[in-house]
Amino acid sequence: MKAIYNNGEVMTLPAEEETHVIRHTAAHIMAQAILRLHPQAKFAYGPATERGFYYDVDLDGEKLSDEDLAAIQAEMVKITKENLPIKTYELPRADAIKLMEDRGEVYKVEHIGDLDEDARITFYQQGDYIDMCVGPHLTYTKALKAFKITGQSGAYWKNDSENKMLTRINGVAFHNGEELKAWEVEQEEAKARDHRKIGREMQLFMTDDLVGRGLPMFLPKGYTLWQILENYIKEKERRLGYLHVMTPCVGTVDLYRTSGHWEHYKDNMFPPMQVEDEEYVLRPMNCPHHMRIYANHPRSYRNLPLRIGEIAHDFRYEASGTLKGIERARHFCQNDAHLFVTPDQIKSEIAAVCDLIFDAYKDFDITDFRCILSLRDPADKKKYHNDDEMWDHAENALREVLNELKINYTEEIGEAAFYGPKLDVNVKPAVGAEYTLSTCQLDFCLPAKFELTYVDQDGTEKTPVVIHRAILGSLDRFMAYLIEETKGRFPAWLAPVQAKVLPVSEKYMEYASECCETLLDAGFRAELDERNEKIGYKIREAQQVERVPYMLIIGQKETEARNVTYRDRDTGESTTCSMEEFMQLLRK
RNA sequence: GCUGCUGUGGCUCAGUCGGUAGAGCGUCACAUUGGUAAUGUGGAGGUCACCAGUUCGAUUCUGGUCAGCAGCUCCA
């Protein structure tokens, strides 16, 4: 595939850049289509993105309907069919400004003002449409073969909410129609595994307007799964020397003033409530409570590391537009812990946390994730605790440990917590943007703010270092991820119902009931389908709707032989064996 | 929170160019006692999200509120 670069050369594109150039060219062609249909349009930025492209455009107050978007799409098709050549040229700064001014492109003019004095300013043109751009682009409009406008949203000029809101029109573009089709199929599949949909189908959780927005409630099946996760991680932590505590969901505003959270996050907390002479807030996180537990009595270096863990209920006043099922809610439960350590224990404790994260991922069969070393933005003195020396020390320490552990990671600036750098482990859900599942944060800041100390070997008082960490992150979000990864077809150890007993007819209800009781007595999660329905019907529902890993078919043969026939959800195969053998299978 | 779209029985969706609604699934009853992905018949179930306005009359039009969805922003 050929492209034209901004020095005017036409060259074959490297394969890894093809998609990007296709998408960027799609943005230009869309802009041309918009300009034809909406001549008042002024263009801001129009880049290619990970999946497609967008263009931010100022329509002078005009609102676009779905029909308008369809018309823009149709006009784009027309432009590709016209097969306009795409040309490029460079202009001196003054001429560039004049050209953009003449065309009323105020945002482009402002953009030129932001460029270095000696920057080259190049333009790309197809037909009567001219865009300031560094390219490269496809050489003819016809080379754009497969694209689709996917929607619109608001976006601020230069991403700053002080600036004017523009209309962002989003699209996707691919090499060919097959790829576009594949993308559409993928979208449909993603929708089918959305945890909100499956959660409703499987009766895992619900929301209710009267209870409130962003406050999901776990139903019996969902809470069963939730408890399995809770017990799983608490048992792992117990074996690693964690001590679990339970602390209240409210705290005084002063508690959060001390930690600094009030200053940084009060807008994202539920507003304070006045009780007698004190102000309380619903807690958004648990660090301060755990800090105060540490401070409960004097500590010696012999007590460290001290690992305080809690499955903690938290409340955050998340903006309404960001709420998403149990993935992001206003109430959630963190698998939180704070490790109070001496400086020379940092390395081994972080290593143990990383081991625990990857160990857990193995158990849940999570393989598609990426690690990020989240650092401060040194220029942003407001967002981050202002102590460069502390930050340099903490960032270097964490980086060093990750390198020693040979963990693959990328560094991201401006992603740290206000009190310290962190290792984040991110995953991509079926629907929507990537999010953090696990985190491990190194904190030299809060222990000092809370004036925590321990008596060291030499008898002097020193400040401990704190490692904040969450393995399953929030249990709620982790469950959302599991639902989408498994499409609700949980492995037997996680399934809310492990075995559903299905009598072939009511004649065999007694033995079926006995089988169910045997399973329940042995501690398994079993249910009996007592309804007067045919076996095929019961199987269909147990398999397709409830997604139960094993169905026990109980009829005349089983009743007479006093054994069971189980049907495997994933293979569809039936096997007859003794109840003891079946339970052995469930224990695996 | 911002921009856009959406809101009809538990679920998925028709429909009403303004004259108070329909299907399938589910649910309930009865019949059927059936061996691996939907047995048959019948019944119940809706203030068409909520509140105003326009109108003789609003589920339908207008405004507001609430909620959901997509994206933006945010995520200690």
How many separate domains make up the residues? 3
Q: Give the total of beta strands.
A: 30
Oligomer: single chain
Q: Which topology of the largest domain does CATH recognise?
A: BirA Bifunctional Protein, domain 2
Output the number of helix runs: 18
Strand order of the largest sheet: 13-17-18-25-22-21-19-20
Q: Ends: how far apart? A: 53 Å
Describe the structure.
This protein is of the alpha+beta class. Helices cover 36% and strands 26% of the residues. α3 (93-102) runs antiparallel to α4 (106-114) and α6 (195-201) packs across α14 (475-486). It is globular and about 90 Å long. The model has no long low-confidence stretch (mean pLDDT 92).
Would you summarize the structure shown here?
The chain has 588 residues and is of the alpha+beta class. The chain is built from 18 helices and 30 strands.
Question: Which helices and strands, and how do they pair?
Answer:
Blueprint: E1 2-4, E2 10-12, H1 15-37, E3 42-43, E4 52-58, H2 66-82, E5 86-91, H3 93-102, H4 106-114, E6 121-126, E7 129-132, E8 137-138, E9 146-156, E10 165-174, H5 177-192, H6 195-201, E11 205-206, E12 217-218, H7 220-239, E13 243-244, E14 250-252, H8 253-259, H9 261-265, E15 273-275, E16 278-282, H10 287-294, E17 306-315, E18 331-341, H11 346-363, E19 370-375, H12 388-404, E20 409-413, E21 422-427, E22 435-443, H13 446-449, E23 454-455, E24 461-462, E25 465-474, H14 475-486, E26 499-503, H15 509-521, E27 526-528, H16 535-545, E28 550-554, H17 556-561, E29 564-568, E30 574-577, H18 579-587
Helix pairs in contact: 1-2, 3-4, 6-14, 11-12
The structure holds one RNA strand of 76 nucleotides.
